[in-house]
Amino acid sequence: LLGRFPATAAFAAERQDYNRVMAGTYDHLRDFQSLHLVLARYGGTFWDKARGVAVSGELRHRIAQFAARGEVAPWEEDTMPVDSWRALFVGHGVAPETYIPAVDRTAPETLKTQFRIMLGFVKDQVLRQPTHDEYLHRNR
Questions:
Q1: Where do runs of H (alpha helix) occur along the chain?
Q2: pLDDT in tens, 117-126
Q3: Distance from C-alpha of 31 to C-alpha of 29, rounded to nearest angstrom
Q4: Both ends of the chain: CA-CA distance in Å?
Q5: Model pLDDT, residue 1
Q6: Are 74 and 84 in contact (CB under 8 A)?
């Protein structure tokens, strides 16, 4: 915002660039929020109507792209990290039909090692947490 904010009213190029960036930022934020509604699997009149709202062409493409191979290409002026988009898709039950072919270039043992490292990290974090009783005792 501040990096593109026009210095004075006389700088039309800065103003146009600022307006373009801000419009893109808001469009992508709208798409991120809309995705919650479009992908929601809840029942009822509200959710049925929410799933039927019109979405931008960019969002339709992003949905199709993720559904095809689990890819989320970065957008210019997107304030949401790609991992947030992935989490949103997966959290709403969108499972890619296939995977990125580049994965095949990684040796299976390398993948297994990386998964073990990630699972070890999760296990360590879980084990560091207090039990329910310990938490309640500390926070009385």
A1: 12-39, 45-51, 57-69, 82-91, 108-128, 132-138
A2: 999 999 999 9
A3: 5
A4: 44
A5: 62
A6: no
